[in-house]
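Entry 14. Ran structure prediction on the chain below.
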Amino acid sequence: MTKCILHVEISGVCLHVRRKNNQGITVLMPDARFAHKNHVKHGDGTDAVAHVPYLRINMANLATDGAFLGDGDANMSNGSPMYEIIHRIDREAIDFGAATPEGVKENVFLIPEASEFAPVLELSPNLLSVSKPPKSVVGRIQLNGGVIQSTGVATQNWKFTGELREDGKDVEPKQYGGVIDWSREFDGPNFTLTLKSLDDATTRQIPLVARKDNGQLRIKLKIANLCALNPLEWDELPENTVLRDDNDFKWVYQFLQLKPGKDPKKFPRSAVPCPSPVKSANEGELQDCFGGAIAEE
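Output, structure tokens:
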């Protein structure tokens, strides 16, 4: 066996749930695919923007003897893969094959925390169920072991208003990272990625193989739930940016509910605070689609 690295980049609207008893992190992706057709609105009445959930794989990491795929190592001039495949996530759990749940080491994990922006809310029931979670879940990822950290940290400070805090005070401004990197070692070079239906027992398996990347045998994956503008985040196209509030963050409230004993009149469903830049910005300066984090209780 050869020690290899599984490297997964996670971006876009999602909720990172720290599991109880150091049982890893479960990433929940809200189903925002058809907002434009169904005229969906967030709790405060603002328009919801459609997002695209997908898994992106470098073709060089496919374990296949196909002749064409021998050129899968080819890169663009900017270093990104020339050939990739896309799996569109459709009510699926992504399984990285860990035998047992294991804690994830957090290394500079800069992400909005529900304990700060919405301490009166908790995780809604059944989202972590093995099968048939609510239809609001389009994808679910289980991370066990390894290290997780934020990249692409915004230079701007962001704040949350205090509607969902007992003291009503705004959250202290902070920098957040819109992209999350998770990596762990595995015995390779072969690796099997499993996609499991959230509605039945259907599974799909994708055989992968680690390839040399800067002297290290590695498999690189990207999982995202991004706005319909450049959803693949190709380097040669502009990333989605905002001038003011990150309204897309409001999708995470589909996964949250008021804690028992809290007053629904004081904390109504229309209260959906989102990251707001402390200073005004010029067009193209602010990246959005932050994820959030919460601890399982």
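Confidence is low (pLDDT under 50) at residues 281-286. Will compare against last week's run tomorrow.
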